[in-house]
Amino acid sequence: MDEKNKTVFVTGFGPFGDHKVNDSWQAVNQLHNSNLESKLGIVLRSTQIQVIYKSAATTVQDIWKNHNPDLVIHVGVHNQDSVMLEKQARKSGYCQEDVSGCVIENNTCPIDGGDLLSTEIDLDDLIEKVKRDDIKIQQSTNAGNYLCEFTYYMSLCHNKARALFVHIPPSTSLVPLKTKVEVLEDIIRTLCAQLQ
C-alpha cells in the first residue's frame, strides 16, 4: 500500500417518494461507527446526495475533483430484500422527475462517456467474497434509470475501475439495518484489499 492512506468515499441518498427515511444514507452514516478507518488504514468520507439531478451532478463532480478518492461507492435503495451490485449505467433516458419536479436537460447525463458504461470491478469475484446466508447478494444490469443510475454513470465517467453502485433493501424491508451496514463493510474491506 502507498504511504498515504487510501480514500474511500461512500454516498447515500436523501428522502424521496415513499422513502421518508432513506436507508442508503442511514447505512452509510453507520459506517463511521465501525472503525473501518483504523482497521483498514483508510480515510472514509461520506456525503448525502439529494434526489435532485443538478445537485447530484454537482456532488459527484466535487467528490472526484476535490477529494481524489481511490474508491467511490454509491448506495441507494430498491424495493427488494436483496443487495444488488450494479454492473452498468446508461447515459440517457432520465425522464422521471426528481424530488424538485425537474428532469435533466434532454433526459441525458451532461458529461459524455458513451451510451453505456460498465464498472471494471469484478462483481462475480466480489459477490463470492462477500456472500452471506442471511441476505442474497447479486449482480444487476438495471440500476433503475433514475437518480441512482444517473449518479453511477457520472462516477463511471470519472473512473470505471474505482466506482461501484450498491442497491440495498429499503427501511420497510425485513432486512435489518445492521445487516445492510455489515454488507457494505464487507464490500469496502474486499475492494480495499484489491487496491493494495
UniProtKB/TrEMBL annotation:
Which InterPro entries does this chain map to?
Peptidase_C15 (IPR000816), Peptidase_C15-like (IPR016125), Peptidase_C15-like_sf (IPR036440)
Q: Which CDD domains match?
A: Peptidase_C15
* UniProt key word Hydrolase: yes
**Which terms does the UniProt entry file under GO BP?**
proteolysis
Q: Which Pfam families match?
A: Peptidase_C15
Q: Name one GO cellular component term.
A: cytosol
Coiled coil start-end: none
Which GO-annotated molecular functions does the record name?
A: pyroglutamyl-peptidase activity
Keyword terms = Cytoplasm, Hydrolase, Protease, Thiol protease
Which Gene3D superfamilies does the record match to this protein?
A: Peptidase C15, pyroglutamyl peptidase I-like
The family annotation for this protein states: Belongs to the peptidase C15 family.
The protein, known as:
Pyroglutamyl-peptidase I
